[in-house]
Amino acid sequence: MLEDDFLRYLQVEKNYSHNTLKSYAFNLQLYPAFLTKHDRSILLADLSPATTRRFIQEQVMQYQIKPRTLQCRISALKSFCEYCVKENYMNHNFMLGVQAPKSDKKIPVYMTLQELKQLFTYLENDTGKFATRNHVLVASFAAYLCNAITSK
């Protein structure tokens, strides 16, 4: 099967991790399922950027997937498409012009004063091999941050 050949190529030639291969395999199953659900051809020659965009729209509108998940799905399809063109399974790129959305940026999480006190208490009582190093690193970083904040 073509998808199996593609995944083997990613594993052997591209050295992709087991988790990445698992993710790609799952994501590659969604596109043919979409095509079948909407009575569209699953032949490589019949795939088009317009159909791919409809697939992406459905993923967002019907399943409310996050931008990072959508990026992974698009990346899997783009890699598969490039592989198919490279190996002469098809002569057109059905992902041409399809772009992944910008990912949602995570808001930084800050330690509370209580958590910071717990960290320093732990470091002061730590007797492990790296205790001194850890204490110096955290104290230096905290001093740097305090200096950066007060000098503004």
List keywords for this structure.
mainly alpha, 2 domains, DNA polymerase, domain 1
- Straight-line distance between termini: 61 Å
Show unreliable segments: none
Structural class: mainly alpha
If you average the pLDDT, what whole number results?
90
How many DSSP E strands? 0
Shape: elongated
CATH A-level architecture of the largest domain: Orthogonal Bundle
Radius of gyration: 24 Å
Q: Major sheet, described briefly?
A: none
List the helices and strands in order: HHHHHH
CATH fold topology of the largest domain = DNA polymerase, domain 1
- The share of residues in extended strands comes to under 5%
Query: What is the C-level CATH assignment of the largest domain?
Result: Mainly Alpha
Describe this structure in words.
This protein folds into two domains: 2-86, Tyrosine recombinase, N-terminal domain (DNA polymerase, domain 1); 113-150. It contains six helices and no strands. It is elongated and about 65 Å long. It has 152 residues and is mostly helical. It is 65% helix and 0% strand. Helix 1 runs antiparallel to helix 2.
What is the structure about, briefly put?
The chain has helices at 2-12, 18-37, 49-63, 67-86, 113-125, 131-150. The protein has 152 residues and is an all-alpha fold.
